[in-house]
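Q: Could you predict the 3D structure of Outer membrane protein?
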Amino acid sequence: MNIKMQPDTQTLDEVVVIGYGTVKKRDLTGAVASVKSEDIVRMPTSNVLEAIQGQVAGLDITRSSGEAGSGVNMTLRGTRSINGDNSPLFIIDGMEGSYDELNPNDIASIEVLKDASSTAVYGAAGANGVIIITTKTPKKDKFSIDLDAYYGWNVISSFPEVNRGEDYINFRREAQRTVGAWNSPADDGNLFPSYMQKYIDNNQWVDWFDLASQTGITNSYNLSTSYSNDRVTSYFSLGYYNLEGLLKGDELERYSARAKIDFKANEMVKYGLNLYAMYSENDKRYSRIWNRILCMPPLGTPYDEDGNLVDYPLGDGNMNPLADMGEDQYVNNVKTLSVAPQIYVELTPLKGLSFKSLLGGYFRNMKESKYTGTKSYQGLESGLVQATIPNTFTYNYKWQNILTYNFKIKEDHDFTITGVTEWSKDQKEKATATANKFDTDSYLYHNLGAATGTPTVSSSYVGSQKMSYVARINYSYKGRYLLTLSSRWDGSSILADGNKWDMFPAGAIAWRISDEPFMQNVKAVSNLKLRASYGVTGNAGASEYATLDYSRTGIIGFQDVGVPYSGYSQSIANKSLGWEKSYMTDLGFDLGLFSDRLNVAFDWYRTDTKDILFEKNLPYATGGYGSSPFKIWSNVGETRNTGVELSITSRNFVGPEFQWSTTLAFSTNKEEVIKTTSEGPLQFGDYYLIPGEAIKTYYGYKYAGIWGTAEAEEAAKYSQKPGQVHIAENGTPDYKLNANDYYVLGSATPKWSGSLLNNFNYKNFDLSILLIARWDWTIPYGLTGWYRTDGLTPSPTVCDYWTPENQSARYPRPDASITNGQDPYQQWANYFDGSYLKVKTISLGYTFPKKWLNAVKIDRMRVYFTANNPFIFTKCDYLKNYDPEKGGNDDDAPLSKQYVFGVNISF
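A: Sure. Here are the predicted structure tokens for Outer membrane protein:
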């Protein structure tokens, strides 16, 4: 028997969508990763990016909140910009769009463009990478109806044990023992104020966290039809999605529709329409309600005998953290309507020559209606009863023209020349009406005129325009030697005169070694291609009016007299503001072995970003005065990202009844600040820019444990005592802690991340398991260490605090003598290694045999069960009951686990 292995030419001939065109996978010169429809719908979610989390090497996607409708955080190949948005550009069916409103069931494929040769054709917009989303089109000469539905429930992914009962009492006892006021339970009489003691005596412990949270329900229904013949192709879809959040009253409801129609008038003319519409309602909760719940002593009477919320559950000044859940007390309803129309005409006057003109837009109206009532948390705290209605209109217009000419010379020389012009305009208008002091809560926000306070009205407008020209040449010699050259000219209204226009060139070469004659006898290698690219991209992500002076007016009160004034706003114009530029190098290879049973893609890259756009504070010495420092947008420094990406796909077993495939994605990225214009560390938000360190660096005092009783003499040199936080000095000890003793505490960016996907098929059963990991990164997590040291407001969760009997603890000793809050250095004990491994998705499905379905005219039917985020394993023991993906934010809702039953039916 003579067996000969053949390469999988179908895989190599797959068409991949790139900027302003398509190309066969075998002819790619850039670093592009693809995700297919079946890999997107594996995870039931309304968020497209969450569905592909972990499936693309170098694309880092996380969630920081479990609230209904919350989005994701993402970067591609690291953080380049500081104040600017580091998210990739999203292209939906050829034009820039918004991913967060897309129905995942409408998507046919997603291409992630990583290197400069792939992204430079998008110029400034593609500086952080490009994600191209292509929606579904029907198969030729086929009419089909598809129904996808699922129902599931959400529970909190992981959360520490709430502190109450004996743990709570012992915490307060220890605080009093520290000052000699407690020695045994006989001293409990003065342990708590009388208003708290009575609840303890009656065992009236309250789990506020449990009272506020719920098991959320999620359900989704999607119906689509498609049809195609020689003249017309059409795709229509309707979608409904509903999600109840983990916090009672937190809910998202979304309706979506898409119509995609293409007409072929004759062999030379095609035209079509692509229309998407979405309407959603999102009932939100106060953003810091989780913080309020966790900071409330776990005692009291939340509800009275009639089931109404008690304003002050402890009978003191502590307000009920559930106050906003009372009827008509806190309402924040956000209604959003989005419409994205697109029309095109395509002419093919000659063989290989085509001209396509697209006109598209994006229109969004978001109305937020908010009311805080008399017995809401804000109403009880400040007496402020307020209704406010912000209304935001967003408009985007785009006109794109693409000229493409494909031709060959003597069969061996294949050219594709592309020219593009693109114009876009963005506008955003916002009007807000606010009224205070209502005699009744029944109006909510529906009757602002009923307010007895003086109403206020405000409005704003921002707008920008961009014009671009693109030229690109793709060349192939015998399909083995590949070359791509491109250049884009971008003009932006945001930047200063003289700097508005710039050119962004790129080039790439590739060599398909596997097609060389000398490789024909190397049977094990079915595909081998070397790639190299270099290019420049830009970023104009500053404020729309960063280069313009504009004034403000107001009234200054002096001795009961109002004196009008005018002057500059607190944002000062920069008349020389220019482009932030990224210089990108990529070296890689694609390898297929054993008839493409094993495929490997490897890339090494380096991105140098210069003239970084940063909004910095001006010193008061410049003459600017206000409630906060004056600011100015500037080009301030240089950063570098260097990394490696590896993707391995293996068809481990291919049999008539059993198949098993594995995909491994791995990436490592080193961020580095090369230089800044500041003399020392430059702070932005929670991070610092420090030359030689990562961009998102934490910087401060270094936690060195808790002073022990054997170290009392050494601690006293720092005016400290056993049980307090030990801070490590930087350099020669002088026993004085100041900013000179700061250390780099870590970075918010992981050193490496990866995923492992296994797909199994046995007869009609299918099983997929996805693991993801983020490793070697730092989070500031204070949930188990936030407490007033006097013990009146203990840690909201059970924590490991120091006592003479427990001197290896992480957190300082409770101390009733400290009445102004925490140990002065307690916050520095809250920085942890956030490394984790997560079982992201487990999905088990069964496809019914066709012979069972023929009688009911069903073409295909699959039922499935999916578990999302069922298990998580953390490197740090202090995070074992927490999901580090959230990033240490105590104010937002915890992340969730989800369990879903679903069905896919095709007619």
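Q: Anything worth pointing out?
A: DSSP finds eleven helices and 44 strands in the chain.
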